[in-house]
Amino acid sequence: MQRRKRAHRRAWLCRLLLLFGILGVGIFLIDRQLRPVVQSFAAYQAKSYATDVVNDAILYYTQQEHLTYDKFSEILYDEDHKIIGIEANSVAINTFKANIVKKINEGMAQLEMQNIQIPVGSLLGTQILQGVGPKVNLRVQPATYVESEVVDQFDSAGINQTRHQMVLKVNISLTAVIPGYITTTEFTTSYPLVETVIVGAAPSQFTHVTGDESSTIGKINDYANRPQQQ
To answer: Which spans are transmembrane here (predicted)?
Structure first.
C-alpha cells in the first residue's frame, strides 16, 4: 500500500515537473521571440517622446532670445572691406548650449514622472493588434547624458556667394523601461539656428572657440584656407 502511494506521488511529481518544464520552455521561446520587437518599439517610443522634449526646449529659447546671426558670429573685414575671416562668439554659444541642455534635462525629468501607457497589442508589431489589449506602463529616463554642440556649415548660395549656417546638434542617451524589458538607446537631431549669405570671396580663415568659459583652456578650432564650395 505504501509502495503504491509512493509511486503515485512520484508520478504526480514527475508530471508536475514536466508541466513546469514545458511552461518554462514556452515562456523562454515567447520571450525570445517578443523581446527584440518590444525593445525596438520601446526605443522608438522613447525617441518620440524625447524628440518632443528637445523641440520644446529649442522653441522656448529661440523665441525667448530672438536669435540672430550677429549674436553668434562676426564677419571680419580688412581696410578694403574684403572679408578676411569669421569669428564665433564663444560666450554666447556656450551660454545658449548650457541653457538648452538645462531645459532638456528639466523636460526629461518631467517625462520620467509621467505615466505613459501602451496597449499590449502595439508591442507585438502587427497591424491587426495595434492598439488592442490591456495597457502596460512605459518609463522613459535619461541613461547617461545630454550633449549639445553648435556646428558650422558652408555651402554655395549662388555665384560668388557662400551661405554660412550654424546648426545645433543634440545627442541624448536614454533608457526605455517596460515591465520585464529594458533597452538603452540614443539619438542625434539637428536644428538650424541662424544663417547668413556671404557675398564676395569666402574667408580663408575661420576660428571657432567652444567649451566652458569657466575653463582656462577651451577647445579652439582654427581653419586656415578652409575650402569652400562654390
So the answer is: 12-30
